[in-house]
Structure formats: structure tokens, C-alpha cells
């Protein structure tokens, strides 16, 4: 479980890094607090909420099996008909680093 949590955290960090790079191309350099405030916007970044919630759920040891199943549902494979899946698949097509992190997670979920 620790390996899966670590891999999910790395994937989450990679997703946030991609989003930050894209934002900074348009708006210039952002302070960490500014970036976190922007990413907390449910209108623009609501797509990320299922993944962020999954990360937070890992801390609840009582539901570990549920969390693993949720991760499988979200990522094996990402569903293009959901907001998360649509954006996630789009980012993976442009960012090879995300594909590497995704593969690390899926190996642990298989």
C-alpha cells in the first residue's frame, strides 16, 4: 500500500506541475499560494477533484481496499466520458512524464 500511495502522490505532483507550467506560460510566474488558490477553483480544476480525493482517502486505513478499487476505477483506464478522464488523457498525450508516472501506478494496481 505504501508503494501505491507513493506512486499516486508522484502522479498527482506531476499533474500539478503540468498545470502550473501551462498557467505560468499565460500568466507569468506564480507564487505557490497563488497557484494553490487557482487550482482550488472548482470550475476550472474540478476535474482534478476525484484524484485529489483519492490521495486524501489513502490516509483512512479503515477503507484501504475501497481506495485501491477507486484508483482502479479512475485510472484503469481513464474514462474519456468523465471530466477527469477527458483532461487526464489529453494531458498524457502531450506530457510523456505523465505517461511514465501513470504506468508506475497501473503496475501496482494490476
What is the gist of this entry?
The chain has helices at 2-27, 32-39, 42-45, 49-57, 64-75, 83-94, 96-109. The protein has 110 residues and is mainly alpha-helical.
Overview of the molecule:
- The protein has helices at 2-27, 32-39, 42-45, 49-57, 64-75, 83-94, 96-109.
- The longest helix has 26 residues, at 2-27.
- It is globular and about 40 Å long.
- The model has no long low-confidence stretch (mean pLDDT 92).
- 13% of the residues are buried.
- The protein is 77% helix and 0% strand.
- By secondary structure, the chain is mostly helical.
Task: Jot down its keywords.
110 residues, mainly alpha, globular
Q: Report, as a whole number of angstroms, the end-to-end distance.
A: 13 Å
Approximate strand percentage: under 5%
What's the number of extended β-strand segments?
Answer: 0
The assigned structural class equals mainly alpha
Largest sheet: none
Shape descriptor reads: globular
Gyration radius over CA: 14 Å
Instruction: Please trace the helix and strand order, writing H or E for each element.
Output: HHHHHHH
Indicate the mean pLDDT: 92
The amount of helix comes to over 70%
**Which stretches are low in confidence, meaning pLDDT under 50 for 5 or more residues running?**
none
How many H/I helices? 7
Amino acid at each position: 500500500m505504501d508503494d501505491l500511495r507513493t506512486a499516486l502522490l508522484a502522479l498527482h505532483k506531476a499533474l500539478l506541475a503540468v498545470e502550473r507550467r501551462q498557467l505560468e506560460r499565460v500568466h507569468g510566474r506564480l507564487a505557490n499560494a497563488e497557484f494553490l488558490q487557482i487550482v482550488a477553483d472548482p470550475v476550472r480544476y474540478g476535474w482534478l477533484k476525484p484524484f485529489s480525493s483519492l490521495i486524501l482517502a489513502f490516509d483512512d486505513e479503515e477503507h484501504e481496499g475501497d481506495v485501491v478499487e477507486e484508483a482502479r476505477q479512475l485510472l484503469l483506464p481513464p474514462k474519456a466520458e468523465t471530466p477527469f478522464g477527458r483532461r487526464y488523457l489529453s494531458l498524457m498525450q502531450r506530457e510523456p512524464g505523465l505517461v511514465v508516472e501513470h504506468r508506475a501506478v497501473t503496475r501496482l494496481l494490476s
